[in-house]
Amino acid sequence: MAKDLPTTARAVVIGGGIVGCSTAYHLAKLGWTDTVLLERKKLTSGTTFHAAGLVGQLRSNANITELLGYSVDLYNRLEEETGLATGWKMNGGLRLACNDARWEEVKRQATTAQSFGLDMQLLTPAEARELWPIMTVEDVVGAAFLPTDGQANPSDITQALAKGARMAGATIFEDTAVTDIRIERGKIKGVQTDKGFIECEVVICCAGQWTREFAGRFGVNVPLVPVQHQYLITEPIKDMPRNLPTLRDPDRLTYYKEEVGGLVMGGYEPNPVLWAEAGIPEDFHFTLLQSDFDHFEPMMELALGRVPALETAGIKELVNGPESFTPDGNFILGEAPELKNFFVGAGFNAFGIASGGGAGMVLAEWVAKGEPPYDLWAVDIRRFGKPHFDTDWIKKRTAEAYGKHYTMAWPHEEHQSGRQFRTSPLYDKLKAAGACFGEKLGWERPNWFADVEAGETPEDTYSFSRHNWFKAVAREHKATREAAVLIDQTSFAKFHLTGPHAAAALDWIAAGNVLRPPGSVIYTQMLNDRGGIECDLTVTRLDQNEFYIVTGTGFATHDYNWILRNIPPNMTIALSDITEQRSVLSLMGPLSREILSQVTNDDISHEGFPFATGRMIEIAGHPVMALRLTYMGELGWELHMPVDHAAAVYDALMTAGAPSGLSNAGYRTIESCRLEKGYRAWGADIGPDHTPIEAGLGWAVKLKSGRDFKGRAAIVTQKAAGVKKMLACFTVDDPDVVLLGRETIYRNGKRVGWLSSGGYGHTIAKSIGYGYVRNLDGVDAEFVLEGRYELDVALTRVPCQVHLEPLYDPSMKKIKS
């Protein structure tokens, strides 16, 4: 007998695809047995039913790889738990490389797999053909094989998750459409369906390609686009082996899996077709689009060169089903910054089956415990910002991301679509000066400057060896160390915090001491309850209850939301985003004071303007808030001003600094200098999984103050007990070794971690990497320094040196060898 729709629930999951069913399954397993899943039609009827079903695990991010690995673990046991067949086969995954650049990429992927604990094996073409005997390998340079990859039947595995959810206590209703969400004073009160109202406080929207439109009705931005994705299903092929691993042939843009004696073959064409640009048809379910053989023909031609048997195989069906893709190719998870207790799981970029088990697990924990089980920044909904509200921008960037699904994943590669969306007032000046721009959250930012007069072109040429901008960055780096540089950092996210409880609220949220006298600039982290670093930023105290907060370009939405969400109850504050009102010029280098003194009458001496202070000064008659701090190690100031003053201040500084060798510099030089000085980068070296104690930033935490702050208890406990990982620096003497991050760290022959970031220090003339040395029995400085280290770079062991002190200290002009 069918159950009646309940009138109350603890949580409502919208959408009965694999992610929605997985989320309901895991919520019920966590004890949220009054979870209700609502599906407007039938389970799997949106996108899941026509998914290809390949399950791969390796990504460039350790935690996303762990999430995908959890999917595999779940699929291994799900059939036994529920009694329903899932079609899951752990038949392994094979990836081909057909040129030297791709082979270098595959070798680096194998190192990444090794770093993250996956057994990825490199094979010769002949060995690859033994695993996949129906393919030709004349053009193959090598291959990688991951034995624990596999494939599943998408509908079957979803039905098994649904049954598991019911067994654990969740309730599922099909043919029940959510028509509205009731929100009162910014709080969710429940969902209205076509069969009645359900009172609830938490909504998890896993509605696939419908998510953007539905969430947008309640002010929540979910940047995804439905894209047509086609794959071919053949009739049974004679003598087809039944144990074939899944096959990815990225140089031919195609993938394959065996299915009931035939093949499934699909690909990612460079010219994707967006779908439903005017809206998804009202009654779209269990529906495929019309096959487009003309559009698929180039994929077929590429596939025939790899699998000649396709030429004579019967075609059962050319499946054309829309799937939701995102502007950066990563899926979207988490609590919406615009609406408390509204969670999203969507935009799975054609690997929803691989992600489904793990995505449902982390989303359920996020809901139940208030935070994800580990750092999920790569897929966090808060990674988006202003450009992601623009539908045209999203379409352009998503089409590019789809087209790059199987192209080379070059280090430092920039997108080409949706450019010049947000520009500094200095954009044209910097372009004329030879700037090669990159893009972050829609902002155009100078990465490096070409010497146009010497014939250099301000364009990136990508490589796994030294890039074409290596010499240009060396010039800028040298100027930073010996003279001075001016860097346009207008894209910094900038917030103004004020109100009667501003100081008290910020003192609770920030781990550093923000209650210093007005005029102080404080570098601080903001921690979660585990002591992990959620934000890494600077706070300038302007007055008793007025603060100016500056954080990284890409963290604008995340950090703004973190501050707002963690204001203690009954405190009154006002937080405003003033990013686009202020330009920022960073003047850095040993001659920066000499240059600045020529354009201002204010006292900028060391005594008159000490480090970590900020105040208003006048530059060439324009009011500027000068903050004396640095992310490059050199003497310098961040100069913050209204945008309409930026050009005049820039011109005044460049004119005054010309005799001293002042030059433009970009973000590549910032990175090179910060590596030498040992500054940490959030999202790489530090983040929610790393505490200040582990990262060597304990000095920035106000433990001695006696005041409480978010995360304090965890830090106190950890400091007393000791740590099991510690951030260290590594250098390589071999000038040909390029460190990019994710290279495996070996201590005395044992794998102990991987590099979180990598690059080159032009002053010390060495490659530099940072990474955590891990040991379950505890880590301290002695343990780190007494080891003998190697780095695995593209599966080659390279000797290296370990350091816990800065490699270069500009204040002492000291280079550590």
Give an overview of the whole structure:
The protein is α+β, with helices and mostly antiparallel strands. It has 18 helices and 40 strands. The strands form nine sheets. Strands 5-6-4-14-15-16-13-17 form an eight-stranded mixed beta sheet. Strand 18 (332-335) and strand 19 form a beta hairpin.
What's the oligomerization state? single chain
User: What is the mean predicted local confidence, pLDDT?
Assistant: 97
- Provide a count of the helices: 18
Q: Tell me about the largest β-sheet.
A: 8 strands, mixed
Instruction: Determine the N-to-C terminus distance.
Output: 76 Å
Overall strand count? 40
Features of the shown structure:
6-stranded mixed β-sheet, alpha+beta, 817 residues, 8-stranded mixed β-sheet
Q: Topology, please?
A:
Elements: E1 11-14, H1 18-29, E2 35-38, E3 54-55, H2 62-82, E4 93-97, H3 100-115, E5 121-123, H4 125-131, E6 142-146, E7 150-151, H5 154-167, E8 171-173, E9 178-184, E10 187-193, E11 196-199, E12 202-205, H6 211-216, E13 225-234, E14 246-249, E15 254-259, E16 262-267, H7 293-306, E17 315-325, E18 332-335, E19 342-346, H8 352-369, H9 391-403, H10 427-432, E20 435-440, E21 443-449, H11 470-482, E22 485-488, E23 493-498, H12 502-509, E24 521-527, E25 533-543, E26 546-551, H13 556-565, E27 574-577, E28 582-588, H14 592-596, E29 614-619, E30 622-627, E31 636-642, H15 646-657, E32 663-664, H16 667-677, H17 712-721, E33 723-732, E34 744-747, E35 750-761, E36 766-779, H18 781-785, E37 789-793, E38 796-803, E39 808-809, E40 814-815
Parallel strand pairs: 1-2, 1-12, 2-8, 4-14, 12-19, 22-32
Antiparallel strand pairs: 3-7, 4-6, 5-6, 9-10, 10-11, 13-16, 13-17, 14-15, 15-16, 18-19, 20-21, 22-28, 23-26, 23-27, 24-25, 25-26, 28-31, 29-30, 30-31, 33-36, 33-38, 34-35, 34-37, 35-36, 37-38, 39-40
Helix pairs in contact: 1-5, 1-8, 2-5, 2-8, 11-16
